[in-house]
User: Which sequence fits this backbone?
């Protein structure tokens, strides 16, 4: 009788033990497959989040380098250099900005109720921006464009402005109206067109933390228009900050290397920082359940493997007489080991097949429940964060501005579990590996004995 037929008859004759082994294998397969499914689902959700948010790399002033060198004036970089960096294949969109004092004169007036003339009489901040839609406050929904259109790279050489709605109401400005601005030299004057009206939710009396002016009086204009107003038409455009939105988080390193190569010495006094805070906020719950599922998978897998090894070891010892008789009849030891391995493989195959039928549904339910709890806890933490009182840095209250949540970056609370051929192959490999290892060790120990020793000592 060949060993394949003997394996089938042995499994049927020892149905009780076969069912126990099947149950053990099934538990191992379900847990390993659940861990793989959750890992795949969370990885896919994380990748989708990265694609939807993108990765923001900011070019800003390196305060350590500037302060250490005793430099008093903030460094500037040519807009043409930033344009070259922005044309790299890793970049999805980019923008840059500069600012200077802009003065409203004539019939145009600033909104009252804010800090008293931080920029001098009639003076406010004019921020020249290449693409206002990429400003973080617009991207995360803090600012809202009420009418008109965003300033884009196509408007670079024109004279267009975005005006805050309180300033627009005070001066009865609407989209398409004209407003005259005077530059910081108090001599250069130019007429700008209102391209749009936006809303800043901050109170009028709350000074902007960076510029000290009332948020109601902030002007966003085209970089070409405001730079010409500040420095004259022939001066090359210089900017002090830039933002690059990348296609994927995985290309950060390559992008930074290429940006440094292109800019060279022009990056002196600047640094490139990746702002992936929104991604971390969204994917925090995913990382938590992934680690939990991985630990549970390993613990259950190891425990199941130990139980399986004990079952196989006991089965092999109980079959010493059978092995002795077969060896005495001339059966090769390799075929006895192959029979034992085949029995385990057959049971493992059935267990893996059964696990593939209901493990995805169980994993979806359990994973969704676990993720829901983690997402709720993360949202509760986000909602509990409160900014310091106006005029306070927050240091005295133990408030860290780095912990400020990103708006419209809600923690992910849904995953989609799906069984892939790669996942099924992985759990099959793990299950069969455990089974064969558990079989080989006790079987080889018994088969090192001679048939006479096995038969004379009995079971």
Assistant:
């Amino acid at each position: 009788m060949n060993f394949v037929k003997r394996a089938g008859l042995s499994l049927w004759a020892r149905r009780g033990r076969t069912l126990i082994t099947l149950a053990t294998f099934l538990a191992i397969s379900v847990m390993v497959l659940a861990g793989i499914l959750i890992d795949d689902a969370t990885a896919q959700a994380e990748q989708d989040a990265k694609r939807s948010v993108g990765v923001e790399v900011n070019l800003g002033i390196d305060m350590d380098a500037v302060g250490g060198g005793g430099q008093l004036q903030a460094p500037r970089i040519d807009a043409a250099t930033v344009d070259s960096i922005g044309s790299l294949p890793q970049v999805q969109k980019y923008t840059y900005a500069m600012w200077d004092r802009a003065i409203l004169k004539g019939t145009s007036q600033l909104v009252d109720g804010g800090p008293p003339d931080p920029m001098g009489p009639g003076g406010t901040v004019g921020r020249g921006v290449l693409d206002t839609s990429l400003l973080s406050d617009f991207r995360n929904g803090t600012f809202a464009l009420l009418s008109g259109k965003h300033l884009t790279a196509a408007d670079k050489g024109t004279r267009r402005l975005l005006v805050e709605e309180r300033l627009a109401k005070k001066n009865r400005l609407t989209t398409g109206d004209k407003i005259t601005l005077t530059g910081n030299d108090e001599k250069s004057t130019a007429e700008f067109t209102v391209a749009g009206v936006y809303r800043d939710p901050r109170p009028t009396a709350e000074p902007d933390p960076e510029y000290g002016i009332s948020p109601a009086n902030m002007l966003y204009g085209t970089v070409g228009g405001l730079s010409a107003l500040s420095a004259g038409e022939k001066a090359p455009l210089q900017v002090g900050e830039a933002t690059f939105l990348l296609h994927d988080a995985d290309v950060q390193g390559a992008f930074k290397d290429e940006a440094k190569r292109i800019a060279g010495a022009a990056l002196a006094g600047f640094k490139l920082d990746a702002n992936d805070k929104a991604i971390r906020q969204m994917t925090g719950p995913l990382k938590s359940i992934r680690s939990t599922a991985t630990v549970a998978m390993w613990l259950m897998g190891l425990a199941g493997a130990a139980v399986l090894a004990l079952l196989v070891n006991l089965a092999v010892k109980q079959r010493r007489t059978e092995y002795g008789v077969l060896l005495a009849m001339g059966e090769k030891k390799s075929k006895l080991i192959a029979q034992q391995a085949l029995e385990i493989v057959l049971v493992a195959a059935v267990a893996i097949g059964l696990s593939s039928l209901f493990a995805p549904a169980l994993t979806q339910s359990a994973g969704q429940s676990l993720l829901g709890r983690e997402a709720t806890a993360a949202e509760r933490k986000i909602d509990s964060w409160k900014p310091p009182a106006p005029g306070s840095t927050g240091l005295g209250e133990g408030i860290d501005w780095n912990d400020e949540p990103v708006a419209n970056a809600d923690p992910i609370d849904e995953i989609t579990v799906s069984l892939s051929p790669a996942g099924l192959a992985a759990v099959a490999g793990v299950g069969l590996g455990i089974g064969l290892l558990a079989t080989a060790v006790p079987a080889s120990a018994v088969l090192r004995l001679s048939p006479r020793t096995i038969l004379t000592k009995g079971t």
User: Anything to note?
Assistant: The chain has a mean pLDDT of 81. The longest helix spans residues 333-384. The CA atoms of residues 17 and 315 lie 8 Å apart. The chain has 13 helices and twelve strands.
